[in-house]
Amino acid sequence: MRAPGLSLLACLLAALSITAGSGLAQDRATTPTRVSKNNAIRPLQRGHAWVRQHPFTLMGLVRNYPRPFDEPLYRRAGFTSLLAWEPSSYDELIPKVAAAKMPFHIHLEHWGGDKVNRKGVTEDILSTAISKIDSPKNRVYIDRLTKHPQCLGFLANDEAVNPFYLRYTRQLLQWLRRRHPDKLAFGNAHPDPWNGGYDRYIDEFAAIVEPDVLMTDVYPLSVPDGLAYNYFGILSDIRKTALAHGMPYWMIIQSFHSTGAFDRRLPSESDIRLQLFVPLAMGYTGIIFFTYDVAYETGLIDKNGKPTRLHPDVARANREVLHLGKALRFLTSTSFGCVAGTHIKDGKTVRNPNRRSTRSLDLTAQPVREVIIESPGERKDALLGFFRDDQGGRYFMVTNLWQNAGATASDRAVPVSFRMAPEVKSLHRLDRVTGKVERMKIKDRTVRITLPGGTGDLFKIDDGQFPGLQN
Q1: Are the C-beta atoms of residues 29 and 244 closer than 8 Å to each other?
Q2: Is 375 among the domain residues?
Q3: Residue 118 to residue 137: CA distance in whole angstroms
Q4: Is the distance from CB of 303 to CB of 309 less than 8 angstroms?
Q5: 130 DSSP assignment
Q6: What is the distance between the terminal CA atoms of the chain, rounded to a whole angstrom?
Q7: Which residue, 57, 200, 262, 374, has most beta carbons within 10 Å?
Q8: What is the Cα–Cα distance from 458 to 455, expressed in whole angstroms?
Q9: For residue 181, is the peptide bond before it cis, meaning its omega torsion is within 30 degrees of 0?
Q10: Contact 58, 81 (CB under 8 A)
Q11: CA dist., res. 335 & res. 142, Å (int)
Q12: How far is CA 57 from CA 79, 248, 299, in A?
């Protein structure tokens, strides 16, 4: 259904919006300023400060079905927090989660939607709805949830598109911050708003709503195989817009199986890893799994509450992501692009096409001058991302993009080599399995590694001082 009034967005933000551009992967983003001209430290944006003060966000969306919720099983999947989704479940779910000392976020579902998320809304209707946000009923509701110290924040009005609803949600988030300044207040943008360019919608969502974190959801794994055509484009648009607005950015990924008109496959091990390590290579600092429990057929658990085959795959991958995430919370993505592999056609070696909405990077001024996928094959490609820390330290991440339905990470492993710039004398890797820093062997300016399917490694040029490892 077409969302009403989207064409009004440009008018609402003519003087406010920061244009995010096309979002193509070769584009460089301006690093948010951390140090002023006199070298004084500038305050971090609210969302960035929160990200650095908390463990890397890995959380499952929990509907509390089937009941009862098995918190130890949830924790064994490697999550650092939980997103409680169904308001009707909170009376039962939240006390149990809090008693187990599991940090959680709360979904505020359709707040104000019956008043402003429809056709025929006027400025007077919007103003009246906003004036009722700070009601005794709402204060009691929020305070009842935040009495638990494990409450981290609120996701309000999922997938809002209507500009009146965006403006209402902005005021709701501001009210939440005033009442609970220690809590995160954010929304989730729609992945397909039906009208206009997606980069424009995301830019205007960020400017109107001003969430502490910019995020959306992408479910790219259809039946029987493959990856959605717009996958990299959406991730790129979110990244570029968030950097332009000075916000951290998260992603909701697919961890469910559904049938019928909306058919999605339960991810394989290589599928789920790709959905984790691609965002990391692009600078994302939070991942939410849709879903942990059952929304359609299965998630990480089935309708009987038993782990599906995906549960142990997620547990292993999450442990690795958490090791890299400790450092990534303190880094800023500066550029990323596709490293296309090769395949054999008619007896000749042919370059693979770049993944849609990505382009190759110009590496002439980078510490990494060339990346080579050493095993030929269609879709044997990689994603290369570059980062800086607050002191100017240089980092890069390489993620293997080869994945398939039913394929394990080892099934889709590829050997990768990269040739370093002549001035690079030392290179360190943050080992995703152990969490320890290791010095890499550089021979003839070349480093060789093997990456499992969908998996990435994080490196630092020169010294091995990765930030955040003690935090």
Answers
A1: yes
A2: yes
A3: 23
A4: no
A5: H
A6: 46
A7: 57
A8: 10
A9: no
A10: yes
A11: 40
A12: 8, 12, 19
Residues listed for the chain: 471
Listed residue (408, 338, 415) closest to 376, CA to CA: 415
| Total number of domains in the chain | 2
Same domain for 346 and 322:
no
Asked whether residue 265 falls in the same domain as residue 313, the answer is yes
Residues 174 and 76 in one domain: yes
Residue with tokens 């064409």: 7
Identify whether the C-beta of residue 466 lies closer than 8 Å to the C-beta of residue 327: yes
Q: Please, what is the angle between helix 269-281 and helix 231-245, to 10°?
A: 30
- At 353, list the tokens: 């096409």
**Whether residue 308 sits in one domain with residue 369:** no
Partner residues linked to 27 by β-bridges: none
Q: How far, in Å, CA of 304 to CA of 313, rounded?
A: 19
Per-residue pLDDT of the chain (471 residues; tens, 9 = 90+): 333 333 334 444 433 333 333 333 344 443 444 544 444 445 679 999 999 999 999 999 999 999 999 999 999 999 999 999 999 999 999 999 999 999 999 999 999 999 999 999 999 999 999 999 999 999 999 999 999 999 999 999 999 999 999 999 999 999 999 999 999 999 999 999 877 789 999 999 999 999 999 999 999 999 999 999 999 999 999 999 999 999 999 999 999 999 999 999 999 999 999 999 999 999 999 999 999 999 999 999 999 999 999 999 999 999 999 999 999 999 999 999 999 999 999 999 999 999 999 999 999 999 999 999 999 999 999 999 999 999 999 999 999 999 999 999 999 999 999 999 999 999 999 999 999 999 999 999 999 999 999 999 999 999 999 999 987
Closest alpha carbon to 155 in 188, 116, 204, 192: 188
Q: Beta strand 414-420 with 348-351: parallel, antiparallel or unpaired?
A: unpaired
Within-domain flag for 235: yes
Is there a domain that residue 7 lies in?
no
Together in a domain, 81 and 153: yes
What's the whole-model pTM score? 0.92
Q: Which residue in 164, 170, 163 sits closest to 187, CA to CA?
A: 170
How many Cα atoms are found within 13 Å in the side-chain-facing hemisphere of 422? 1
Residue 450 lies in a domain: yes
357: domain range? 332-461
One-letter amino acid for residue 357 of the chain:
S
User: Which of 278, 300, 328 represents a domain boundary (last residue)?
Assistant: 328
